[in-house]
Amino acid sequence: MAKVAINLSTGALQQEEVIVGIDLGTTNSLVAYIHPEDKKPIAINDQGRGTIVPSVVHFTQQGDTIVGTEAKDYLLSDPANTIYSVKRLLGKSYRDLGEHKDYFGYKIIDDDSEGLVKIRVQDKFYSPIELSAEILKELRERAEHALKTPVNRAVITVPAYFNDSQRQATRDAGKLAGLEVLRIVNEPTAAALAYGIGIDPNEEKTVAVYDLGGGTFDISILSIHQGIFEVLSTNGDTYLGGDDFDRAIINHWIQNNELIADTVNQDKHLSQELRLKAEEAKRTLSVQEVYTSTIDGRIDCHLERHTFETLIAPIVARTIESCRQAMGDAKLEAAQIDAVIMVGGSTRVPMVYEAVSEFFGKPANNNLNPDEVVALGAAIQADILAGNRKDILLLDVTPLTLGIETMGGLMDSIIPRNSKIPTKAGRQYTTSVDGQVNMKISVYQGERDLVKENRKLAEFDLKGIPSMPAGFPKVDVNFILNADGILKVEAIELRSGVKQEVEVKPQYGLTDEQVEQMLMDSITHAKDDVSARMVIEARTTAEQMLYQVERFLEKNGQHLTEEERQLTRENLQKLRDVLAANGDKDAIFVAIDRLEEQTSPFAERVMQISIKQAMAGKKIE
Ligand code: AMP
């Protein structure tokens, strides 16, 4: 049976649908989801075409687009209309490309107006966002076709080092492809999740993710604690990968075979065949000791694993050097790494596996398909966001503090900013006036000490509190913040069971800039806020004290001597005078202490009214 959810911003009913995880890669992309029955992540293999979709977009003469393996076939025959490695251009300006401008077989245009590059195909200009959207559309269609359901929401992964502009560009590409991008997740985070690391919120681990793909190499060191994934350092080379292994093999064959050396520059067919054979040799040598083949039955292509390893040793050594640097930046020793995770097709090369395991001093994890591991982790993240894993903490934090207004307009924080969500927190309050039957609960978001400086999210009345002396009702206010950032606030009066609750969406309508501004304000005004808070707290305590002691005199005055009554009245008046004169917090506290010292023995004498207890809890007006 399909689950039905309510969209809190529109109030509309919405059908719960699958959220996919997407690895939008430089060379290859994949889409994965959580199988509804066995709850395991699987990469989508639509119509037996394989799980990997090459990140290549080809424009036909008619202007249509083809994405994936079919498009890859045009890389050699029609390079000007076939776009690959577009991820390298996302969020980049022409200047950012620097020495790598010649890497691309298609036309990249310097577009001054936006500062970001465009790609010229035939007579049209495309942004890398539009081209990435084509790849995402293809993935979306494959997912919809395979799952037989509309796919409108996704989690997309990006390298840990992607900056804001690159992340935003990835988000925009998702939007263009008709996907609501619920989250942009770091690739190493996804890889760790796929291995189940970080799923238990109590787990604390330091993890190294070694990702060697076709054309890029990344090493990321992550610290995982309480469900939060923190990137300690990254290193790598955006132009180093399995393609370099292939090139090393081709060069070796050229150097050792005169027939190849003499013709390769003129013979396009031969150079193409050589590339294919080199990749085949590399893959074969991952599982065998020797590779033997021929091109067109006449040119011998032979390679032994030992020779291959000699060829690639300098490239592997460069990746290990990057690992060393990343570890240095993270200020860690190899022994402090709890797990090493292998990502990317090139980690299947045994020499790579061994070099990495040796460097970190422990066997690297490679049980999962290294091509799929990032997409699988993205699917797990999507499933968490869908709220299907109630046992798991969401790997996100709330950007601003959530709290309620207490006496004097003070913000009483209940869920501090940077708390991981979902989360639940509560606090007990009481009334400030005898016979108070309603309690106003005002919910705020922000870092300032005074609620008027923060943002009001909701307000409701807890009604029907049975009439009791001030300080007697016990009102539990609980904040429950779920995975989508929806906050439920409930207030329960424990003695009577009276209960009231509201739901609010704290993030709703706040832009990232506004959140940032609110944080900035809290820092700028921190000092003023603290002194203002202290005065308000002192005044509030004083007012409560006045109220309690006056009530006490009224009800229990007969138990006191005339002298005691007189002294109490004098001390009450002194406290009132300090308040009326807008005294500073020290003056107020001196008066409070004097009154308290003098009256506290009375409380013990008259057991049925506990002034101390009334003064202990915070009160809401
Ligand atoms: P990726 O970018 O992660 O999809 O990685 C693709 C790279 O992995 C390409 O350079 C492939 O040639 C390489 N690759 C895939 N399978 C193997 C294998 N069995 N042995 C060695 N390299 C492989």
TrEMBL record:
Q: Which GO terms describe its molecular function?
A: ATP binding; ATP hydrolysis activity; ATP-dependent protein folding chaperone; unfolded protein binding
Q: Name one GO biological process term.
A: iron-sulfur cluster assembly
PROSITE patterns to which the protein is assigned, alphabetical? HSP70_1, HSP70_2, HSP70_3
**Gene3D superfamilies documented for this protein:** 1.20.1270.10, 3.30.420.40, Actin, Chain A, domain 4, Substrate Binding Domain Of DNAk, Chain A, domain 1
Q: Check the record and name the Pfam families matching this protein.
A: HSP70
Keywords, comma-separated and alphabetical: ATP-binding, Chaperone, Nucleotide-binding
PANTHER family linked to this entry: HEAT SHOCK PROTEIN 70KDA
Q: Which family does it belong to?
A: Belongs to the heat shock protein 70 family.
Among NCBIfam families, the record links this protein to: HscA, PRK00290.1, PRK05183.1
Q: What is this protein called?
A: Fe-S protein assembly chaperone HscA
Originating organism: Pontibacter oryzae
Lineage of origin: Bacteria, Pseudomonadati, Bacteroidota, Cytophagia, Cytophagales
Q: Tell me the gene name.
A: hscA
